[in-house]
Specification:
By secondary structure, the chain is mainly beta. The chain is built from one helix and eleven strands, in the order H-E-E-E-E-E-E-E-E-E-E-E. It has one domain: Jelly Rolls. 8% of the residues lie in helices and 36% in strands. A hairpin with a 2-residue loop joins strand 7 and strand 8.
Length: 110
């Protein structure tokens, strides 16, 4: 393993088990949170605030487990690939992001 990558991964605590959202409404990911699955039945568009104070190399994944984003859009609060607060509207979408030291970059999507 690359020494710098290993240092980055151990520099901040990572929550390894996924957070499953079962209550509707906005959600703010916590520091070190890696995976959030939206399973709540939303009644309107909602916001997901990306983890605060990320370290370079930190990974974060979101999955629209309720498959309702087309009706109830999900807005990421943060900078992703040069877009401030992007909105996602595809049922069942997922995004894996990595923090590059300035903003989040999409590294995988479905």
């Amino acid at each position: 393993m690359n020494t710098q990558f290993k240092r980055i991964c151990t520099a901040s605590p990572q929550k390894t088990s996924p957070t499953v959202l079962t209550t509707p409404g906005n959600y703010a990911a916590g520091p070190g949170e890696q995976v959030v699955i939206g399973r709540a039945s939303q009644s309107g568009s909602w916001q997901l605030t990306l983890p605060p104070n990320p370290v370079t190399g930190q990974v974060f994944t979101f999955k629209d487990g309720a498959r309702t984003a087309a009706s109830f859009n999900v807005q990421f609060i943060g900078q992703v690939d040069g877009v401030t607060n992007p909105v996602f509207s595809t049922n069942g979408f997922s995004r894996t992001l990595i923090y590059n030291g300035v903003e989040w970059n999409v590294t995988a999507s479905a």
